Every structure is written in structure tokens, then in C-alpha cells.
Amino acid sequence: SEAPSSIPSQIPTFIGSQSPSISFVPSGAPTLAPTYQCSLSPIERAQQIGLILLPLSGLEVFGIAESPQSLAYNWIVDQDTLLLCPEDPRLTERYILAVLSFAIASENWTRCSADNNTVCDDALYLSGSDSCKWDGIGWNPDGNVTAIRLDGLSLEGSLPAEIGFLKHLVEIDMDSNGLTGSIPGSFGQLESLEIL
């Protein structure tokens, strides 16, 4: 048999080398260090998202485990497959829509709820889809929420104050639902609102 040559041949061989080779090209093999979403550990991501969302809702409601605000925050941090980074401009509007979903969801929600298996023209609420694709949500070309149209869906609960931070909102249509409570004072910040 021939001894291995130290000069590369033109034709590749399928015989293993006698000794390991050194390459300066990345192998593509996984490293021991974890790769994190947004270049942040999960704890750092959760903390930074919390710091951004806290001013919208206030510490008092974040501390209540079953509040719509706490449920929405935990959903964004732990369950949302879209995995938005803290600096993503869609984060606050997605959070507000998630708060709305948790605040008014009922067992009787008849169209496109997170737990509903019915066919939807648009995406289900609290899905990994971009929230602009959630059923009943209207957006402008810049990606801002302009309409919430959730009429006749047998929704219950009350409208959360966080909706007042949707500064491009033009329309809220929640007719024919079982909503209770008063319209939050934060709706006074909705300078573009035309239809309520």
C-alpha cells in the first residue's frame, strides 16, 4: 500500500486521514455556549421587557398573578413564539392587545380566540403570528394599530386602560358583547379616535 501524500490531490479520496487536520473554517457544529434571543439571557430579556411595559400598567397590577396585565406579560416573555426583543417597536402594541385579550376573553368567545378551534379568516389571538394579523385588528402602513373590531363575539369583562396608549387608534367597535365597567379615563389620550 502507498504511504499518504502530504501534497493535496486533485481528486478527493474517501479514505480517512491518518491524523486530525486543522481548519480555520467554522465547522457549523454547535458550541457549548448558549445562543440567546436578542443577545440576552431569558432573565435579562424578561427584565428589560418588564421595564418597558411597567409604565403602561403600573406596578400594582403586575403584582397580581391573575391580572390581565400579568398574564399578558408572562405570555409575551414565556409563551409567545414570536419572541420579540425589548427594542422591537411592536412590543408595546402586542402587549396591549394581549392585555385586551386576557381582560375580555370568555368561554363564549365565538371567533378566533386563543382557545377556539374554529376556522378564522385571520390569525388567532395570542398566536405566534404578528398581531396585525389577529382577527379584528386594523393597522396602518407604518404597522400601528388603528382599529379594534371585536363586535358580536360574546366577550365579557371590561376594557383595560392600556388601550389609551394606542395613539394611532381610530376605531373601537365592541358592540353586542357582555362588557362591563366604564370607559377608562386613558381613552382621553386617544386623539385620533373617531369611532367608539
General description of the model:
It contains 4 helices and 5 strands. Helix 3 (68-79) packs across helix 4. The chain is globular, with a radius of gyration of 25 Å. The relative contact order is 0.11. The longest helix is centred in the N-terminal third of the chain and has 16 residues, at 42-57. The N and C termini lie far apart (88 Å). The chain has 196 residues and is α/β, with parallel strands linked by helices. Strands 1-2-4 form a 3-stranded mixed beta sheet, with no helix packed on it. Strands 3-5 form a two-stranded parallel ribbon. The model is unreliable at 12-17 (pLDDT under 50).
What is this structure, in a nutshell?
The protein is α/β, with parallel strands linked by helices. It has helices at residues 42-57, 59-62, 68-79, 91-104; strands at 137-139, 145-149, 156-157, 171-173, 178-179. The chain has 4 helices and 5 strands, in the order ααααβββββ.
Which terms summarize this structure?
4 helices; single chain; alpha/beta; two-stranded parallel sheet; 196 residues; globular
The shape is globular
The beta-strand count equals 5
Largest sheet: 3 strands, mixed
- Strand arrangement within the widest β-sheet reads 1-2-4
Which helices and strands appear, and what pairs or packs with what?
Layout (H helix, E strand, L loop, with lengths): L41 H16 L1 H4 L5 H12 L11 H14 L32 E3 L5 E5 L6 E2 L13 E3 L4 E2 L17
Helix pairs in contact: 3-4
